[in-house]
Structures are given as C-alpha cells and as structure tokens.
Write a structure and sequence with these properties.
alpha+beta, eight-stranded mixed sheet, 8 helices, 21 strands, about 30% helix, FAD-dependent oxidoreductase
Length: about 350
Amino acid sequence: MLYDFLVVGHGLAGAILAQTLEKRGHNVLVFDFEKNNSASNVAAGLINPVAGKRFAKSWQADVFIPAAEEFYRNLETELGTTLYHQKPILKLFSSIEEQNNWMGKSAENQWNEYIEETYPSLPFSETVNQELGGLKIARGGFVELRKMLSFLRQKLGTQNKIRSGTFQFSNLKLTENGIQYEDIRARHLIFCEGWQAVNNPYFGWLPFSINKGEVLDISVQNFTTGCIYNKGVYVVPLGEERWKVGATYNWREPNELPTAEGREELLGKVKQLLKIPVEVTGHLAGIRPATRDRKPLIGTHPEVSQLSIFNGMGSKGVLMAPFLAGQFADALAGKSVLWPEVSIDRYRKFFNESEQKG
C-alpha cells in the first residue's frame, strides 16, 4: 500500500496532525515509540490566553483558541469521551508590583474577551493566599492529554494505522514517488518527534532550545474549586481531590529524570499559594521541544521535498497545534501558505551554513 503520509511521532503534535490529515481524506500511517514520560504525557494540557508575569496576551490567541475549542469538542464527539475542560483561570498577584503591572495594562482593549474580572483584593481565605487579589481569566482550561493520546492510539490500532518502534534513519530511502521505510511506502513523511528532532539528520540544523519541565501530582483533602489557580505555578483540578502542579523550566539538564530540586521548587511555590497540607502522589519530568524564538518549526525540507517537520511548540502545543495542523495540511495540498512566523524558511540561512560546514 502507498500511504499519502507517514507521520513519525504520536505525541501531541503528531496525533493532532495525523487526525487532521485523516479528516481531510488522506491515508495516514503513524510510526511511534510510545513513552510514558514524553512531554505530551507529562504536561497538564493547559490553554491560557494570558501568559507570564508580564501579562502578555498569548500570541495569536484570537485565532488559536476558537480552533482549539472546535477541534477538541469534535474529537470528544468522535471518541465518545470528555477531554477538554473549559475552566476560568484565577491568576493571583504575588506582589504589589505585579498588581501594579497589571493595572497599567488593564485599560487595553485586547483584554476584553479574556479578562472576566479584576480583583484589586480578595477576602481572607483559610485555604488560599489570595489577599493581594488577581484576575479571573476566561476561555482557559485544560485537555486530558494522556487520555486523548491513548484514545487516538487505540483508534489507530483498530484501523491498523500505527506501527510501534524506534525510527532508524538508516532504513529510510528517498524514492521518485516519496519515501520507503522498511516495508512502508508513502508519498510524504512528516517528522513530529518532539525534542528528538535535535538528532534528526535532515532537520538538526533548526534552532531548538529544549528544556526540561517537571510536574507534581498532589492530593489535597477538603479543597474544591471550579477554577485553575496560577501563582508562580499552575494548580489544575483533576477531580477527586487530585491536582496537577507545574511546571519548572530547566535548560541546564535536558533529561527526563525528576529531581529533588524540581520537587522542592514546585512544593515551595504551592505553599505560597495554598495554606493547607498537600500530599505528593506523583512526580514526572519531560523535555519540551521549545525553540529560540518561541515559535513553532513547520515546513518542508529546503532540498528534500518528500520530508517535512511539524514541531517546536514548546509549552503551547495544546493551544496552537489544532489551527496550525489545519494550516499545514492546506499548505501541503497547495491550498494555502504557512505563516512566516512558523515556517522553517525563516531559518534557511542556518541550513545553508550547515551545508557549507558539511
């Protein structure tokens, strides 16, 4: 059989791209080595239209959020399960300075759709350090990524459209009609390898800036809320007194090993938020495929037209991937072009330099 696309990798990016291509009528095969602690399995799956201490509106939030909401709701309908939990995010101020920074930005019209309410102060709470006030952010939420990836993998398995294993570049052959990998033939191959792209001989020239993120699973008794908390860390309600806390950013140790330092950093920030005891029930680490300019890396190889990449979404993949997968599918079909901010063409000089060195 000749497939239209071979997608290598079934983390968040690969799963969403494969689903998008399939829905557009393409014959897709996925090749993946499943890892329990991949970045997609570790992450909390947050969608947050307001990011960082400087209260920056997430890049292209007005485009990404509607596309993400539609994608995950449609996927829930198809799979017959709940995946996307839309919840307000209560961003609590950590200091008077942070409070003042927001007040200086709050008059801008760009926030109208996303800031449900501003609290200059909040009443004393027995459970939460919230007296400095904060923001109630609308259109936030989280996706159960581990569950989503598991369901999609099962679906592909029943259709005989997924192969398990470690991709060996020595077994890849370029042909006139596309590619051949062992007994697999496809017109086009798309790499969605996450941080492993740094070892890809065709796309290793791209400027990834991988970093490790650690998260905790915690149990908190007699504490319920309808929102996601954000104060130095995010604290996401998973139900049944279970919460996910994250995340750290570590560029010094790009490995997948949880550390005592990461645990203490996260617990210290939880204690700045919560006044009640917590019990750690899990501790995981994953490597984010972040990039130098914090924008995705998408496109077809400058010289090998059979090969493309869909990667580099860092901690924003849940938000960005649904729209960008659609845009990339259109670009591959010749119906559209990629945004220059995400196209690998912006780094063509790096490819030229790598060729000169080679």
